[in-house]
Specification:
6-stranded antiparallel sheet; mainly beta; Jelly Rolls
Length: about 160
C-alpha cells in the first residue's frame, strides 16, 4: 500500500508533533486510575506514522510510560534523552538482523523524538499506561531543551520547535 492509502484506510489525521495518528483504543470500560494529575484511563493506544512529507516527530515527553511497536514501511530513528541527560538512539524497523528493534519501551519523563530518514513512510503503534491525556504532554521549546541539555545542541536544533 502507498502512504496515502494507509492514511485513508486507517483514518489517520495530522498530529501537532509531526506525522499522522489515530487513537485506536482507550480503556474506558475500566475504572480510571488516580494520578497526581487527575484520573486517567488505564491504557490508550494509537497508530502513528511518519511520512516523507512529515518526517519528524519533535522532542516531547509525557508522564506515562509508552511502548512503540513497529508495523510497516521504512525504519524510524528514535532519539531519546533520559532525565540524567544520557542520549540513546534506537532504530525501530523490520530488519532485526541489521539491529532494528520491533518494539521500544520509553519511560515517562524521557524526552523522545523520531524521524523517518528514508522511504515514504514508517508506521508504528504506541501503547501508553496510564492512558494518554493532553494534560500529560510536555512539548518544550528549543530554548528550554537547550537549557536542560546543552550537550545535545545539534540534535535539539534539528528536532525541536523554536
Amino acid at each position: 500500500m502507498t502512504k496515502d492509502e494507509i492514511v485513508k484506510a486507517l483514518g489517520l489525521v495530522g498530529h501537532f508533533e509531526g506525522g499522522y495518528f489515530k487513537e485506536t483504543f482507550r480503556a474506558d470500560h475500566r475504572e480510571r486510575l488516580g494520578t497526581p494529575r487527575g484520573p486517567r484511563a488505564t491504557m490508550t493506544s494509537i497508530f502513528y506514522m511518519l511520512t516523507s512529507d512529515s518526517p519528524i516527530d519533535v522532542f516531547h515527553t509525557k508522564h506515562s510510560d509508552g511502548i512503540q511497536f513497529f508495523h510497516l514501511g521504512a525504519p524510524l530513528i528514535y532519539h531519546l534523552i533520559h532525565p540524567d541527560g544520557r542520549y540513546e538512539k534506537v532504530l525501530l524497523g523490520p530488519d532485526i538482523a541489521a539491529g532494528h528493534r520491533l518494539q521500544l519501551a520509553v519511560k515517562g519523563g524521557t524526552w523522545k523524538a523520531a524521524e523517518l530518514e528514508s522511504g515514504t513512510f514508517g508506521l508504528v503503534s504506541e501503547v501508553v499506561a496510564p492512558g494518554w491525556e493532553m494534560d500529560d504532554m510536555i512539548l518544550a521549546s528549543r530554548a528550554d531543551l537547550m537549557a536542560l541539555f546543552p550537550q545535545h545542541e545539534p540534535l535539539l536544533s534539528r528536532l525541536s520547535r523554536a
